Amino acid sequence: MDAPIIPPKPRPGDRVAVVSPAAGLPGVLPLPYELGLRRLVEEFDLKPVEYPTTRTMGASPQARAADLHAAFADPEIKAVIASIGGDDQITVVPHLDAELIRANPKPFFGFSDNTNLLDFLWGLGIVGYHGASVMTQFGRPGAMHPMTAASARAALFTTGPYELAEPGRITEEIRDWADPATFEQEPATEPVPGWTWHHADRVVEGPTWGGCLEVLAGMLMADRIKEPEAYAGHVLLLETSEELPSADTVWRTLRAMGERGLLRQFPALLMGRAMAWNFEKRNDRAARETYRAEQRAAVLRALAAYAPDTLAVFDVDLGHTEPQQVVPYGGRVRVDGPARRITVHY
């Protein structure tokens, strides 16, 4: 694979596109969205620009693709930021103009269902950024988490190495985004243990690929994944969503990746701290710990069967985590087992 294209970064005062290529939830839940827009302006000195489908639920895949084309083609737009995720971005990808986007590379920020678009950019050789959506990170109640804000700022405006940190405390329970009272104070936090390392006797450095496991499963079924050798030497990013897939589901998905010959291509894995609470499954602390332990066991089972030498780090704060840290997608990361350090390159 050729050297990746790292798009030029925006500067304070620049215009950035805010798009909804997955779901137009800003039109349904405006409070976190409007708050996120204000923070982009007031705290990051950026000028957000909306598109026709940004606040439109049920917009057609063609219309959402058209918004992406407009954002990437506009020379005044210096970055593209997803409002939030969704569940059908896989239908948008076939309508994307690869040549237009390749000719106008820009930093794209998003995660969850935006795994589809991050993978599309990776296939074009363009580095994207897994994380920092408007409603979830910029629109956090009370204030942006300092760890998230520092990571997002570094990814937006700087280049070079950035060391990820362990937060010590995280937010587990989410409050109602439709209730204005939710945004009057920061969410409660709880202490958590640090990262868990597996085969940490080595250093691995390489470009990243992966994303939300449930989305990757859909991409596998739709035959959107390249031949296994295309991923050789990459660091695999995996995380699960607020849908709380069971440990059996995680195992079966990874087993399928193993049978396809994918898992053994990755010398290292960064596994996001599993979200373990939603409004339908209001797990207490013990249940949340059990859920994460069972997921970790499922991943280790898959690695033992298909990639026994892979270095793995669990409970990294990427993807559906609070706080969240931005990880480059297709950019380089250094996983230093002996030093217990993870350094990304923005």
Automatic annotation (TrEMBL):
Which is an annotated Pfam family here?
Peptidase_S66
InterPro entries referenced in this protein's UniProt entry, alphabetically = Carboxypeptidase_A_C_sf, Class_I_gatase-like, LdcA_N, Peptidase_S66_N, Peptidase_S66C, S66_fam
- What are the UniProt keywords, alphabetically? Hydrolase
Gene3D superfamilies xref list: Class I glutamine amidotransferase-like, LD-carboxypeptidase A C-terminal domain-like
Could you tell me which residue ranges the LD-carboxypeptidase N-terminal domain spans? Answer: 16-131
The organism's superkingdom is given as Bacteria
CDD domains the UniProt entry points to: Peptidase_S66_mccF_like
Protein name per the record: LD-carboxypeptidase
Source organism per entry reads Kitasatospora terrestris
From the broadest rank down, the organism's phylogenetic lineage runs:
Bacteria, Bacillati, Actinomycetota, Actinomycetes, Kitasatosporales
